Structures are given as structure tokens and as C-alpha cells.
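User: I'm designing a mutation panel for beta-glucosidase and want to avoid disrupting the core. Could you give me a predicted structure to guide residue selection? Please restate the sequence first so the numbering is unambiguous.

Assistant: Good idea. Sequence first, for numbering, then the predicted C-alpha cells:
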Amino acid sequence: PILQQKVQNQDDVQVSIEAARESMTLLKNDNATLPLTAESVKKILVLGPTSNNLGHLSGGWTIQWQGATADLWHGDINDEQFYKKGITILEGIQNSAPKDIEVDHILGFDIHGNEQDMDWIIERIQDYDAFVVCIGEHVYSELPGNIHDLTLPQGQIENIDKLAKAAGDTPIVTVLLEGRPRTLNSIQSNSNAILQAYLPGPWGGQAIGEVLFGKTNPSGRLPYTYPKYAGDMNMNYWRPACDLFDPLYEFGHGLSYSNFEYGNITVDGQLNDASENVQMLVVGEKEKAVLVNVTNTSPVDGKETVLMYIQQPFRTVTPPAKLLKGFQKVFIPAGETVNVRFSVNADMFRYTGLDNIPQGTIDNGPAKVLIGSQVFDFEVVDPSTE
């Protein structure tokens, strides 16, 4: 009883909701489909197997090994048997939708893609101004979660195909619940907007609803490269620069309802000048201060996740295209500019090679710092090798 009183107290709930808000990653938003507003829609239909299920929000190792939802490992389970508290996606949408927007719900198809109510939906397709389709993968952990194909269940893909064909120009917003990137195939082209919600926990539905209606401005970034095809499992952003690279969404991708512009990078107060006076990054010397201005050019307050990469085009062994060496999430009010500071030093360019290349090797030569669309050129120097 004492433990039950401590678990999911109000402070814990707020931390859980805030973590979900910060992680929401908007992958696609054609023609500003999101946020949904009372001006753009009057009636929406929420459907899909993860739309009203707390177990799918939480994933495996929740309540028990394979999660709190029905599957072949432990039979039928009622969510209420496990969860006393939580907010499903449907409930989060109902909580966040303006009072003038009517919200309907029907399952449509189950997590395996088996059709249940799609004919009912198609018959009433003209009744709705937008569709929110909540899909994803079955909860799992460890060995039972192993799969041989990254593609989402074919039935989920086919049911969204069917919906899109009937919906015509009516927008489709797809919400993904998944613990790994599952290839989307035609879901990508059939969706006007795609929100990657990951596995946000039993309170994650509130954060999802807030993002869909603009009460929370999404600021999450992908922590992996999202593959376009099932065979792209080894596609990483730090690939060798010469490798072919055609992902669906690159590592670090994430959209916002705000627009941000990056100003010139300065290092120790100096602007970039690749033609002359190139700054030196010398092994053993102090780090250099990297500053970049980020401006919110939109009328919407927002958070921007600023990523700093390094790049060394020429090395003894084939270099990676780039490596992430710093990131900061900063709040920027509409129309304002903030200065974001990082540090860079020569040790960031150390690497471990093969055969007779010792651990912690640094190659002398040109290098770059990349932040947004901005670039700063350096010369890396190790005096011990000269």
C-alpha cells in the first residue's frame, strides 16, 4: 500500500507528461496540416489500434514482461486490470481539442492489421474534416520482440491505403507508437502529417493531444536514422562520407510549428574565413568557444534543438560524414534571437584505427564545425607529429 501511494503521484505524473512533450518528434507536416484548429476542422475521426490503449503507449516491461496488452504470451488482458491512471491518445485529443471540434472514435483495424470497422468509416468518409490514425507495433521486450522485417504489419499499411483512397483531399495525420523505426512504405505518402511519439508512457496521450492541437510546439529530434526500406538497417548518420545515403528521415530530424534561422558561427569572436587566417585547433591547447545565433522568425514561440557536428574530410582511414559533439535545446520567443554556445577542441577529432594506427590518433589537416546550415573551418594540428 505504501508503494502504491508513491507510484504515479502528481509530481511523477507531471514529470512523465513533460518528458513526453519534450520527446514528441514531428516528422512530416505538409501544408501546415498541424496544428489542427477550429478554423481548419469541425469534426475529426480518431482510429487505429493504438488510439485508445494504455498498454501500447507504454511498451514492454510494463506491469509484466511483454507489457500490459493482449498477446499470445499471456492471453486477453483488460487495461483496467493494470492501469488505474493514464491518458490514452483518444483521451488526450478530447482533452486538447477546442470545444467547437467534434471528436469521434472507432477502432478501424487491430494491431495486426485485421480490418474491423473500415467499411463503416468509408461509408461516412464525407462526415469528417480530418483523420487521426494511431498505429505502431505490438508491445514487446527481449526475444519475443525479435523481427525479421522492419516493415509495419501489412494490414495496417493496406487499411491506411484504403482510407487515403476514399478520403481524397481530407488530411490524414498518422501517430506512430514504436520502440524502433518501422518502415512505413505507402503510409509516408498517404499521410499529410506524421508524429513520432515513440513509447511515451501511460500519460503520453496527453502530450500527443497537445501537439496535434498546438498547445505544445513539438521540439523532439530523431535519435536514429529512419530507414526508407527494410534493408536499410545499417544506415547511420556517421557512415563513411563516400557511402550512399538515402534515408526516409535523417538522424536529428524534427519539425516545429516555429521557423528558425541560424546566423554565422563565430569561434573565439571571429567569423569564418576559409581563404585566410584559418583558426588552428592545436592538441594540448585550451578549447575554443563556438557561438551561433538562432532566430525564431515565426509568430509562434518554440524550442529549437541545436546540434553541433564536427567533420574531418581527410584522414588516414575513411572518415565519417560527420559526428555529433554537442546539442542544446533552447526556448526562443517569437521574433527573438538567442546565442547558443558550444566548445570545440582538437581532442574531439581523435579516433581509433586498425592495425598499426594507435588508439586516440589525430590526423593533421582541415576540419569543420557544422551547426544547422552554418560551417566554420579549422586546421587541426598535433605538434607531436610535425
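For picking mutation sites, this is relevant: The chain has eight helices and 16 strands. The chain has a mean pLDDT of 90.
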